[in-house]
Amino acid sequence: MMYHILRASEFLVITGIGINELKITKKALVWPLQKCRIIDVTPVNYTFEVNTMSAEKLPFLLPVVFTIGPCVDDRERLIKYAKLLSHHERDSHDVKDLVQGVIEGETRVLAASMTMEEIFKGTKDFKKEVFDKVQLELNQFGLLIYNANIKQLVDVQEHEYFSYLGQKTQMEAAKQAKIDVSEVKMKGEIGAKEREGLTRQNAAKIDAETTKI
C-alpha cells in the first residue's frame, strides 16, 4: 500500500481491484492488487515538413510546428489519453508517429482537393482548415492542439510554382498600381482644367458686371 502525491504536470492512473476500467487522480492511496502509472501531461512540440501534392499532382512542402498535449480540463479526454499511454510511452516513436500520421494524412487529403492557385491565394483558409481537420482526428486520442504554426508554403526542387505565383501576384499588383496612379493623375488634370475653366468664367462675369457699371 502506497500513497502518491504528484507534480503539477502529472496524473496518477490506477487500475485493478475495486476500480471500473481506470481512475485518474492527482493523489491517491494505491492498494494491493491495484496497479498505478504516472502520466505526464506536458504538451509536446512536433516539428516536421509535410510533403504533399495539389489537385494537379504538383508537389510542395508544408513546414509545420504543432504543440499538442492532453486536455487536462476535460475528464473524458484525459481518460482517452491515459488509454493511449497504456500501450505506449509518452515520448515513444509510436505516439510521435501517430500524431505525425494524423497531421500528414489530413493535410494531404485537403491539399489533394485544391488546385495550387487555390492553395496559394487562400493560404490562411487552407492553414485553418488543416488545423480544424487535425484537431477533429486528435479528439479520439484525447489530444488538444495548444498551438499550431503552419509556415510559408515551400516549393519542391525543380517545381517552383509558389515562386511563380508570387511573382505573378507582384506583377499584377505593380500593373494595378500604375493604372491607379494614371487614373489619379488623369483626374487631377481634369480637375485642374475644370478649375481653370471656372476661373475664366468668373473673371468674364466680373468683367461684364464692371462694364455695365
Automatic annotation (TrEMBL):
User: What is the protein name given in its UniProt record?
Assistant: Flotillin-like
Domain named Band: which ranges?
29-183
Instruction: Keywords in alphabetical order, please.
Output: Cell membrane, Membrane
Q: Name one Pfam family in it.
A: Band_7
Q: What cellular-component terms does GO give this entry?
A: caveola
| Species of origin | Solanum stoloniferum
Q: Tell me which family the UniProt entry assigns to this protein.
A: Belongs to the band 7/mec-2 family. Flotillin subfamily.
Q: Give membrane topology per the record.
A: Lipid-anchor
